[in-house]
Amino acid sequence: MLRVDIITIFPGYFREVLDFGIIRRARAAGLVDIQAHDLRGWTSDKHHVVDDRPFGGGDGMVLKPEPIFAAVESLVGAKRRESIAGGKRVVLLSPQGKPFSQSLAAEFALTEQLVLICGRYEGVDERVADALVTDEISIGDYVLSGGEPAALTVIDATVRLLPGALGSDTSAVNESFSDGLLDCPQYTRPPEFEGMRPPDVLLKGNHAEIERWRREAATEKTRRNRPDLLKP
Ligand code: 9D3
Question: Considering the entire predicted model, what is its pTM?
């Protein structure tokens, strides 16, 4: 069973979203155990302070290192990257991270424990990235207000790859990004909707013709929306 521990100042953010769809089914089936932990629980001062002003000046606040190191030590049993057991990953969600990808999700799905550290404010004390985390990850080139939605993205992409998480009618093979092309367009009933019809080839049942159409349509969709995927 994969264990996922989220370290956040907003544990409540995760409560309902983890209770739907594939993630709910995977949890119910015992494939994954996901817990959101309040970073403030690892503070030792009266006011549970998790942030402070940046050295050198500047706007905003920076998450302090001590509660994060304490959280990871209690959840993973290590306080440095080198001491983290193989099969465990400690991930910092950060705008400065490496791009998240399907291949990284596939690696995470093979681990026994995933710890996700969610940043907030202007950032996280760099000693966390330097000495504690195994992976610093961004989900894309846009600015979020915190790492929480990025953590959810990582959880979703990872959990659906756990053996048994997808129903028998669905499969994690032959997907977009596995074969390097976007999915082909799909249609269902009715055959005519407000004057719009699916391509005739899909209604005729010649499976060789349908396969050829799907590959060409997928290539055309990819050329239009993601030409970067076709570049050598
Ligand atoms: C790059 C912007 N920073 C310069 C002042 C400030 C800043 C903005 C947003 C610092 C942290 C954040 C919160 N974002 C994340 O924690 C985050 C994130 C993101 O913003 N985009 C894509 N992936 C991620 S993963 C975590």
Answer: 0.96
